[in-house]
Design a protein that fits this description.
Layout (H helix, E strand, L loop, with lengths): L5 E5 L10 E2 L11 H13 L2 E14 L12 E13 L9 E5 L1 H4 L9 H10 L4
Antiparallel strand pairs: 1-2, 1-5, 3-4
Protein backbone atom coordinates (compact mmCIF):
# COMPACT_ATOMS: atom_id res chain seq x y z
CA UNK A 1 0.00 0.00 0.00
CA UNK A 2 1.09 3.53 -0.69
CA UNK A 3 -0.15 6.08 1.90
CA UNK A 4 -3.19 3.88 2.57
CA UNK A 5 -3.84 3.23 -1.11
CA UNK A 6 -3.59 0.06 -3.22
CA UNK A 7 -2.62 -0.04 -6.88
CA UNK A 8 -5.16 -1.89 -9.03
CA UNK A 9 -5.09 -2.51 -12.73
CA UNK A 10 -7.89 -2.86 -15.24
CA UNK A 11 -7.60 -5.72 -17.71
CA UNK A 12 -7.58 -4.86 -21.42
CA UNK A 13 -10.98 -4.64 -23.11
CA UNK A 14 -9.98 -7.16 -25.81
CA UNK A 15 -8.53 -9.81 -23.45
CA UNK A 16 -9.96 -12.40 -21.11
CA UNK A 17 -12.20 -11.02 -18.37
CA UNK A 18 -12.37 -7.65 -20.15
CA UNK A 19 -12.21 -4.49 -18.02
CA UNK A 20 -12.20 -6.37 -14.71
CA UNK A 21 -9.96 -4.85 -12.03
CA UNK A 22 -7.17 -6.93 -10.50
CA UNK A 23 -3.95 -6.62 -8.57
CA UNK A 24 -0.76 -6.42 -10.66
CA UNK A 25 1.30 -9.58 -10.96
CA UNK A 26 1.38 -12.63 -13.16
CA UNK A 27 2.31 -16.23 -13.69
CA UNK A 28 5.41 -17.96 -12.34
CA UNK A 29 8.12 -18.95 -14.77
CA UNK A 30 9.57 -22.45 -14.48
CA UNK A 31 11.41 -22.80 -11.15
CA UNK A 32 10.58 -19.25 -10.04
CA UNK A 33 9.47 -18.44 -6.49
CA UNK A 34 6.24 -16.45 -6.06
CA UNK A 35 8.00 -13.43 -4.52
CA UNK A 36 10.57 -13.30 -7.33
CA UNK A 37 7.80 -13.60 -9.92
CA UNK A 38 5.99 -10.62 -8.43
CA UNK A 39 9.12 -8.46 -8.48
CA UNK A 40 9.72 -9.44 -12.14
CA UNK A 41 6.10 -8.87 -13.14
CA UNK A 42 5.95 -5.44 -11.46
CA UNK A 43 9.08 -4.44 -13.36
CA UNK A 44 7.59 -5.68 -16.67
CA UNK A 45 4.03 -4.38 -16.20
CA UNK A 46 4.67 -1.14 -14.32
CA UNK A 47 8.38 -0.33 -14.63
CA UNK A 48 8.99 -0.32 -10.87
CA UNK A 49 11.51 -2.13 -8.68
CA UNK A 50 9.64 -3.46 -5.66
CA UNK A 51 10.75 -4.66 -2.25
CA UNK A 52 8.30 -7.25 -0.97
CA UNK A 53 7.24 -6.93 2.68
CA UNK A 54 5.34 -10.19 3.17
CA UNK A 55 2.73 -12.54 1.81
CA UNK A 56 -0.68 -11.75 3.32
CA UNK A 57 -2.84 -14.34 1.57
CA UNK A 58 -2.77 -17.23 -0.88
CA UNK A 59 -5.54 -19.27 -2.37
CA UNK A 60 -6.45 -21.64 -5.15
CA UNK A 61 -8.92 -20.28 -7.68
CA UNK A 62 -10.56 -21.89 -10.71
CA UNK A 63 -11.52 -19.72 -13.68
CA UNK A 64 -13.78 -22.34 -15.29
CA UNK A 65 -15.06 -19.90 -17.91
CA UNK A 66 -11.49 -19.40 -19.12
CA UNK A 67 -10.41 -23.06 -19.25
CA UNK A 68 -8.49 -24.13 -22.36
CA UNK A 69 -6.99 -27.35 -23.60
CA UNK A 70 -8.22 -30.92 -23.33
CA UNK A 71 -8.15 -30.96 -19.51
CA UNK A 72 -10.23 -27.76 -19.32
CA UNK A 73 -8.32 -26.84 -16.16
CA UNK A 74 -8.02 -23.20 -15.26
CA UNK A 75 -7.04 -23.65 -11.62
CA UNK A 76 -4.36 -21.35 -10.25
CA UNK A 77 -2.57 -20.95 -6.93
CA UNK A 78 -2.59 -17.20 -6.31
CA UNK A 79 -0.22 -15.45 -3.88
CA UNK A 80 -0.85 -11.94 -2.54
CA UNK A 81 1.98 -9.81 -1.16
CA UNK A 82 2.29 -6.42 0.47
CA UNK A 83 5.02 -4.24 -0.99
CA UNK A 84 7.29 -2.49 1.54
CA UNK A 85 8.61 0.04 -0.95
CA UNK A 86 9.38 0.56 -4.61
CA UNK A 87 11.52 2.77 -6.77
CA UNK A 88 10.30 4.42 -9.91
CA UNK A 89 6.88 5.76 -10.78
CA UNK A 90 4.33 3.15 -11.95
CA UNK A 91 3.84 3.37 -15.70
CA UNK A 92 1.11 1.37 -17.39
CA UNK A 93 2.74 -1.12 -19.80
CA UNK A 94 0.07 -3.84 -19.82
CA UNK A 95 -3.40 -2.69 -18.77
CA UNK A 96 -6.37 -0.62 -19.89
CA UNK A 97 -5.65 1.66 -16.92
CA UNK A 98 -4.06 1.66 -13.46
CA UNK A 99 -5.37 3.44 -10.40
CA UNK A 100 -4.47 4.06 -6.74
CA UNK A 101 -7.54 3.44 -4.55
CA UNK A 102 -8.29 2.93 -0.87
CA UNK A 103 -9.07 -0.63 0.21
CA UNK A 104 -12.66 0.50 0.91
CA UNK A 105 -12.99 1.74 -2.70
CA UNK A 106 -12.09 -1.77 -3.91
CA UNK A 107 -15.46 -2.97 -2.61
CA UNK A 108 -17.27 -0.80 -5.19
CA UNK A 109 -15.15 -1.85 -8.17
CA UNK A 110 -15.73 -4.65 -10.69
CA UNK A 111 -12.95 -6.82 -9.23
CA UNK A 112 -11.86 -10.06 -10.87
CA UNK A 113 -13.61 -12.87 -8.95
CA UNK A 114 -10.34 -14.51 -7.92
CA UNK A 115 -9.17 -11.30 -6.19
CA UNK A 116 -12.30 -10.70 -4.08
CA UNK A 117 -11.16 -12.72 -1.07
CA UNK A 118 -7.92 -10.72 -0.91
CA UNK A 119 -9.96 -7.50 -1.12
CA UNK A 120 -12.02 -8.61 1.89
CA UNK A 121 -8.82 -9.28 3.85
CA UNK A 122 -7.37 -5.87 2.96
CA UNK A 123 -10.57 -4.04 3.92
CA UNK A 124 -10.89 -5.96 7.21
CA UNK A 125 -7.31 -5.09 8.20
CA UNK A 126 -7.33 -1.37 7.37
CA UNK A 127 -7.64 0.90 10.38
CA UNK A 128 -10.31 3.55 9.94
CA UNK A 129 -8.90 7.06 10.22
Amino acid sequence: MNSGHVLVCQRKRNGSFPLKWEFPGGKLENGEAAEAALVRELREELGIDAVVEREFHNQEWNYRDNAVGPAKDATYRVFYFLIRSFTGEPVNHAFEQIKWVTPKELETMDILAGNREAVKILVANVKEE
